[in-house]
Specification:
This protein is of the alpha/beta class. Helices cover 49% and strands 13% of the residues. A seven-stranded mixed sheet has the order 1-9-8-7-6-2-3, sandwiched between helices. Helix 5 runs parallel beside helix 13 (317-358) and helix 6 packs parallel to helix 7. The radius of gyration is 27 Å and the shape is globular. One of its GO terms (molecular function) is tRNA binding.
């Protein structure tokens, strides 16, 4: 209620009570005012009542919620289901206009304000997470792969002769298909094996630039967050190379916001060389439903060009989800989650190392990867050809999700390109392995249960091996001793 309505209310209920209620209301409004003035994520999270009040205030500014509104167009924010309307807080018009996803909608002042505020709050959080000089970003209602495609399509207009994208190999389908969908030819550069780690082959990348001609290369498409034993690309060196040859640089930072190391690489790359845009997922970094990404960069005009490339209006759901989440957490709450994730990485590494040693395996040395870990599975491979993949099935049926079991020798064709050793980021990685990741939101209970169930599965294989050996021993000698003791 406004001040006039509060004054009228004093004639109905004791004025002292009304003043107390008005003061409480002003507390909510003060938080909203600071958000509007500063455009930053609040340090401390808001209560659900403040967030709902704010969203309801935004919703009544959209034409579909005007009292007495008469809509005679083809898009009037009509919703048949009340449940759907409530799910979206009656913010139905979406974001952007037909020519620009960042444009203001005349019919939807509230939704437009939501869009602008979300982009501003997310920009602030990217700075909090470590990329301090990022200047512009926007939330796009597409996951990481299609958001990368949008970046490549925008570069097409700036480099019309270019047909190649140089891509240090990472065995993840969506980032590879993002280049194919945009109509470009990926130039796959195999990684170098350094110890257990797979790292960027800078010499081959530079040779490819000289061989193909810089003007024929759309960009270098590098990666930060990835599955071990691959580690983040050498962004600083790649950024310097891109500046040297005047080639754009797009970074796939899919789940890298949660890692201070990945964000530091982007910050340093932009400082010493060239990074045109970096793309990250909303669900992986902010624990919201799948369907959104953030495209960010250091040149406002280029990021605006990307937003204008998006055809038509867009769903406001990803923007709404991430704004609600960040207002709930506050900057301090998000920092706390980042700190907990890093602590859990150390815990997961320690527990996996102990388990590996118990079963005659080892935790691979991948110190440059700040999120993902890998444990060798050599003994399973020696046992039989199917044991490695069987372990993956056993873990899944025991409700251990996210663990990847990577056998050797897998071959797969993606969009006409055949990859040997697919999933291992190399044609012939020296050993099969199991991946586990310490991602934002992981708990100690998750780690404990995973280790317990993985241990039980590995013991099952050991028992089977012992049973087989015992049977063979008995058939050859007639003795019934246990060769595994």
């Amino acid at each position: 209620m406004n001040s006039e309505n509060f004054s009228i209310s004093e004639k109905i209920v004791s004025s002292s009570y009304i003043r107390q209620g008005a003061q409480a209301r002003r507390g909510h409004e003060q938080l909203i005012r600071l958000l509007l003035e500063q455009g930053k994520c609040p340090e401390d999270g808001w209560s659900e009542s403040t967030i709902e009040l704010f969203l309801n205030e935004l919703a009544v500014m959209d034409s579909n919620n005007f009292l007495g509104n008469c809509g005679v167009g083809e898009r009037e924010g009509r919703v048949a289901s009340g449940l759907v309307a409530r799910r979206h807080y009656r913010l139905i018009h979406g974001i952007g206009r037909s020519g620009d996803i960042a444009a203001i909608q005349p019919k939807a002042a509230g939704s437009s304000l939501l869009n602008k505020l979300t982009n501003s709050v997310v920009l602030d959080i990217l700075k909090v997470a470590g990329v301090r000089t990022v200047s512009s970003c926007f939330v796009v209602p597409m996951a990481t792969g299609m958001s990368l495609t949008l970046c490549f399509l925008t570069l097409r207009h700036k480099r019309p002769k270019a047909k190649y994208i140089i891509w240090p190999r990472i065995d993840q389908k969506s980032c590879f298909k993002s280049m194919i969908t945009a109509g470009f030819e990926p130039v796959v550069v195999e990684n170098l094996l350094e110890g257990d780690e797979l790292r960027t082959d800078l010499q081959t990348i530079e040779s490819k630039i000289q061989e193909l001609g810089a003007e024929n290369i759309l960009c270098i498409h590098s990666t930060t967050s990835c599955f071990a034993p691959r580690v983040p690309d050498r962004l600083e060196e790649l950024a310097v190379m891109c500046a040297k040859y005047n080639i754009p640089h797009i970074v796939n930072n899919a789940y890298g916001v949660q890692s201070s190391k990945c964000m530091h690489l982007i910050q340093q790359g932009a400082r010493v060389g060239r990074i045109d845009a970096f793309v990250q997922s909303l669900d992986k970094n902010f624990m919201v439903p799948v369907g959104g990404a953030i495209i960010a960069g250091f040149d406002d005009s280029f990021i605006q060009d990307i937003s204008r490339m998006y055809p038509g209006r867009a769903s406001a759901s990803p923007s709404l989800d991430v704004l609600i989440t960040l207002l709930t957490l506050g900057a301090n709450g998000y920092r706390k989650l980042l700190k907990q994730r890093k602590e859990m990485y150390t815990n997961l590494a320690e527990e996996l190392k102990k388990l590996a040693e118990t079963h005659g395996e080892r935790l691979l040395e991948t110190s440059h990867n700040p999120i993902s870990l890998a444990m060798s599975l050599c003994s399973l491979e020696k046992q039989n050809d199917r044991a490695v993949t069987q372990l993956g099935s056993m873990l899944f049926t025991r409700q251990v999700s996210g663990a990847r079991v990577v056998p050797r020798g897998t071959e797969q064709t993606v969009s006409g390109y055949t990859f040997k050793g697919f999933m291992s980021h190399a044609n012939d990685y020296p050993c099969p392995y199991l991946n586990a990741a310490s991602a934002i939101g992981i708990t100690k209970e998750d780690v404990t249960l995973c280790i317990k169930r993985l241990d039980k599965c590995l013991k099952t294989f050991k028992k089977e091996k012992c049973d087989q050996s015992s049977t063979l021993e008995t058939s050859l000698t007639g003795n019934e001793g246990d060769p595994c003791e």
